[in-house]
Amino acid sequence: MNRLPLWLVALLPAIASLLVPVVGYFFIIVLVAELREARQVAAEASANRIAEWISERGDVDTLLNPAGVLVSTPITTPIHLDGQSGDWHVVPPVSPETQDLLLANEVFVSTSLAYTLRIANNPQFVYLFVDVADNSVVYREIGHPSVHRNDHVRIALVGPDNRFRQFTFAAFQPGAIAAAEVGSGGRSLREDPDMEAFWRATVSGYALEVRLPRRALTERFSLAVADVDDSSARQLRYLLGEAPLSAPADLGYVSFSLDEVRRAFAALPHDRVRLFDTAGNSMLDVEKTLLVPADEMDTPPLPVTGSAAIAPDANSQARIVVTTNTLDLMLMTERLVNALVLGSAIIIAFALMLSLLMGMHLSRRVNEFTGKLTGAVDASGRLVSKVNWDKSSDEFGELAETLEALLGRVESHSDYLEKMASRMNHELRTPISVVKSSLENLEAQAVTEQQRTYVDRAKQGIKRLNNIVSKMSEARRLEESLDADEIHAFDLVDVVKGCVAGYEVAYPEMQFDLRLETDKAPITGIPELIAQLLDKLVDNAVSFSADGAVRVRLHREQQMIHLRILNAGASLSLTDDDEDLFASMVSKRRGDGDGTHLGLGLFVANIIARFHGADLSLTNREDEEGVVATLSIPVMRVTSRLR
After folding, report:
1. Count of alpha carbons within 13 Å of 466, Cβ hemisphere only?
2. What does the pLDDT read at residue 23?
3. pLDDT, position 482
């Protein structure tokens, strides 16, 4: 299983910090949803309170049932008196029916008289706009005081002082006119300076626009239009209006409650409040202007709406609807998200930088330990220098103390093993000499044939023991003498030729096949040691050769020289591959030869190869019928010492 690098493990906290914006965004979404739900509940509660306030008003019936009641529409801009209807597009008209005739001296003909009435008000004035359809308009007589012997408009009202008053609007000609206050008998008393009016002739008749002070009237109000068609007789034909004008008790009603309700709605903290009458028609719509128009936003905020019924009657559709936009929530969400992004970026950057620094610090300390341990042990596993540990007060300091103690024990054991060969050599030489001399003395005496057999076997054993001691001393002396030898450049071709010639003499029973694929093979090193390395490899090849032949090949590939020694015979088994054949005291020889094999030959050869910067390997032949020993050594390498 592949382990993660230490620096990547140190980055895990920084990677985990990526959850900060995710969790923060989820929190913002939940918070905004809770605030929106709270605003929805507040809108419903506010709609219920407004509905309760309207239902408790004394004029709730006239407010919500406009049928039979003249409703004044609240306006915010003043109306210019010019007889034009351009200022009245927001005010709904009211048209009387045939049954609203107050007087008919002739059979009523609908084409003779009809009108529409609009009423509007602001806190200072009440405005009337009467659009009359009259097939014959008769104006006042010049010099005649009567205001009723012509087409005219009458109004009757009750003032705040409970005073009943009647007024007539009649014109000598189109233009600005005055309001004439009339008495109970219909006689003109005086002109009222507080009332202004403008009479304009139209294609279908005439239009009258009136402005009177808001303080001059209450809710009791009636209006009627009189029709006089004969300019000679000047007799009144019809009087059309929704309520009589003769007595205070008979007057109709005009509702100014919408103005009060509008002001109340405007003071509410909602962005839009709508009032619907019992028929479901919109009576009032108060909407505030957003600081940022919705059509200029990329994503307009979704409003929160609350609704409540005003009248408990099941047939009534009167209700109040309040709407609150969520622009502030949207702006708050944007601010929170921006703050979250900025804060998360800072946190992630800080965590990443801290994790990188921590990972670099840990990697540096681990690499420092690795470098010191690697430098303290050479390629052969021998301790060559004492480690100067940085004993800090953290866990690495404790690790350094532990490693120092372990290396001390390893050094002691290695020193014991290194000195064992020399001690054994010294301790074994004397008893071997004693045994050898005793056998020689015994051999000089007269012994039987059977005794001589035992003496010969003892002499062979002493010879083997002496050979073992000599080879152990040889390996030890080689390792100690590598630094003392002189290094210089030489031609490997000459060394190989000389060695092979010597092998033909030393092993007359063997056949040596030498093939040189290059004329020159310049390398740097010690020729005597290379020759010793070849001796060990050839000795192995001779011992394992099954056909009595050893093949030697030398060729060059770019900056590397390859020397191969091949022999036919048993191949390396899996067990041989698993075991380090170049280790000390490892031998795979089979057979009953006279030689003693401690497994030091390949060990010595490998030491010499590493000293020269070369690679030594043992592999099976391609036909699996033998073994190939390959020495790969660089061309003209400036070699460093083993120790």
Report:
1. 13
2. 86
3. 61
The pLDDT of residue 202: 94
Q: What is the pLDDT of residue 407?
A: 77
Q: Is 635 exposed, middle or buried (0-12, 13-18, 19+ CB in 10 A)?
A: middle
**Distance, CA of 155 to CA of 96 (rounded, Å):** 15
What separation in angstroms does the CA of 357 have from each of 354, 362, 395?
A: 5, 9, 17
Burial 156-173 (b: 16+ CB within 10 A, else e): bbbeeeeebbbbbbbbee
Of 162, 279, 283, give the one whose Cα is nearest residue 219: 162
Label residue 111 exposed, middle or buried (CB < 10 Å: 0-12, 13-18, 19+): exposed
- How many C-alpha atoms does 173 have within 13 Å on its Cβ side? 1
Q: pLDDT for 82-100, tens place per residue? A: 999 988 988 888 888 777 7
Contact 513, 549 (CB under 8 A): yes
CA distances from 267 to 14, 44, 77, 263, 274 (A): 52, 17, 18, 6, 14
Report which DSSP code applies to 185.
T
Distances (CA, A) of 43 to 35, 39, 326, 340: 12, 6, 12, 30
Q: What is the pLDDT of residues 624-637, one digit of tens each?
A: 788 999 999 998 76
Alpha carbon distance 221, 591 (integer Å): 141
Interacting residues of 57 by C-beta distance below 8 A, sequence separation 6+: 63, 257
> Which parts of the chain have pLDDT scores under 50?
1, 291, 484, 574, 576-579, 585, 590-598, 639-643
- What is the Cα–Cα distance from 388 to 373, expressed in whole angstroms? 10
CA 333 – CA 328 distance, rounded (Å): 8
- Burial class of residue 97 (count of CB atoms within 10 Å of its CB; 0-12, 13-18, 19+): exposed
* 125 beta partners: 213
Give me the sign of the Cα torsion angle 423, 428, 430, 433.
Answer: negative
How buried is 462 (Cβ within 10 angstroms: 0-12 exposed, 13-18 middle, 19+ buried)?
middle
Q: How many other C-beta atoms are found inside a 10 Å radius of the C-beta of residue 376?
A: 18
139 half-sphere exposure, CB direction, 13 A CA radius:
12
Residue 41: per-residue pLDDT: 86
pTM above 0.85, yes or no: no
d(CA 230, CA 228): 6
Distance of CA 579 to the CA centre of its chain: 54
Cα 102 to Cα 81: distance, rounded to the nearest angstrom: 28
Q: Give me the pLDDT at residue 577, please.
A: 43
Given this model, what pLDDT does residue 18 score? 80
Q: Are strands 522-525 and 488-491 parallel, antiparallel or unpaired?
A: antiparallel
Q: Residue 583's pLDDT is what?
A: 62
Instruction: State how far the Cα of 53 lies from the Cα of 73, in Å rounded to an integer.
Output: 20
For helices 527-544 and 492-506, the axis angle rounded to 10 degrees is 40
Rounded to whole angstroms, the Cα distance separating 74 from 286 reads: 10
Nearest residue to 151 (alpha-carbon basis) of 175, 169, 127: 169
Which of 161, 99, 156, 159 lies closest to 128 in space, CA to CA? 156
Burial (Cβ within 10 Å: 0-12, 13-18, ≥19) of residue 195? buried
The confidence score (pLDDT) of residue 385 equals 67
How many alpha carbons lie under 13 Å from residue 154 in its C-beta half-sphere? Answer: 31
